[in-house]
Amino acid sequence: MKRTDKDIKRILKGRTVLVTGANGFVGSHLTDKLVEFGADVHVLLRPSSSGVYHNLAHIQKKITIHRADIADKEAVRRVLMKIKKEGSSKPVIFHLAAQAHVGESWWRPYETLSSNAIGTLNVLQTICDIKLKVRKISFAGSSEEYGNVDPHLKKLYRFDKSGGLILDEFTPLNPQSIYATSKVAGDFLFRNYHRAYGIPTGVARKFNNYGPRQNPRFITGVIITQALERKLIKLGYLGAKRDFTYVKDGVMGHIHVNLFGRPGEVYCFGSGKTIMMKDWLDLILKLGREMGYWGEKKVVYEKWRGRLGRSEVEELRVDYSRLRRLTSWKPRYSWEEGLKETIQWYAENRDDWIGKVDWR
Description:
This protein is of the alpha/beta class and about 350 residues long.
């Protein structure tokens, strides 16, 4: 069924919407879009001594801000009680709060599980405890949940004629990192609470978003920021294949899954095609040269850079036809269009990211 922006606005205009993790990369873009659709947007931010809004500074007067650590159940309860008392009937909730860096999950394993699994449990259990009736609550899943092909289950996987892997809602999950495992936990908790308590949950399993405001420690930002700042670009293993999705398309995927997805079900979305990381690098460098941001760059490959042990995920590509059949969602941005906007943002907003890089 074709779903339009008018359908979305009709549901969201004036409705209370809560976004957890709203100050993050995808969360901030989602918050922008919800404000644009006329929702009464509330955001849950992790408390910090700086109190800085970072990615939400430009719209802070248009939203209601709540501060709570998602891993602190009492703090979560206070926020959801405010939503229950002050908001409209049946609010919509987008649960995006998470420790989102795969590599970082090995160095902060307890925090990753606390935020991504226990934090998710806190939200769901509190909804039950305070009897909050929601229109829908959706979870931000991840393509990392699929990991690599399990050789013992190979018959359950789909491949194209050339042997390329195709992933969908029914592909086995085989997480390769603590981050991925924490996302699998959240994914199943959402389905558990739908079956047990009837909470209208949904899982939006997204594939590799990129775009403005993304932390420069993720691969697209790593490449762009080094190209802007250095003559020599240092990278690790670039043989993996990824399905990259521009964040503005990803945000609309989240909205479509939440508002139109069937409760208790999983929907995947992404570009539907893969690119090897070496080719992604070449495309970024080519576009940046054409835009006049840098000249020729030398690239050095160092084997020690990359994921621990044998935890690298080799290939991720989505078949998003299930969501498309349900809502007509599909990507609107080509890789070139998305990368041009991304490169321009990094070039024009150095102060927003230079303190976050961890080049060595």
